[in-house]
Amino acid sequence: LARIAAYANAGVDPAIMGIGPVSATRRCLDKAGWTLDQLDLIEANEAFAAQSLSVGKELEWDASKVNVNGGAIAIGHPIGASGCRVLVTLLHEMLKRDAKKGLATLCIGGGQGVALAIER
């Protein structure tokens, strides 16, 4: 289906929980040698609306590329399986659109974040 181009995790002050994907995304894209503008699709888990809006605002990504079928608020946020849901949704949409580069990202409790760059 695709290959992992890069991945990264990050931890931030738990007092600003939810913003971890910002640092993880930046690290991941740096490792892949990519920029946000080069991404065709982004699947970002929405722990809750304010969390996803703050990540989008900080990264200044193109919202038309993010969660194109709706995010966790619309599709679901399966406890213990959110990462799988985000990745599988991204992979299927990349296949459907013949997209070449995608990013999956999630926040994790305690101020952590993860990001995974996928290439087809």
Task: Kindly describe this structure.
This protein has 120 residues and is an alpha+beta fold. It has one domain: Peroxisomal Thiolase, Chain A, domain 1. It contains four helices and four strands. The chain has helices at residues 20-32, 49-59, 72-75, 82-97, and strands at residues 3-11, 41-44, 101-108, 112-119. The model has no long low-confidence stretch (mean pLDDT 94).
CATH class equals: Alpha Beta
Question: What structural class is derived from the secondary structure elements?
Answer: alpha+beta
The count of domains is 1
Fraction of residues in helix: 25-40%
GO molecular function: acetyl-CoA C-acetyltransferase activity
Family: Belongs to the thiolase-like superfamily. Thiolase family.
Pfam family, one: Thiolase_C
Domain Thiolase C-terminal: 1-120
What secondary-structure arrangement, pairings included, does this model have?
Blueprint: E1 3-11, H1 20-32, E2 41-44, H2 49-59, H3 72-75, H4 82-97, E3 101-108, E4 112-119
Parallel strand pairs: 2-3
Antiparallel strand pairs: 1-4, 3-4
Helix pairs in contact: 1-2
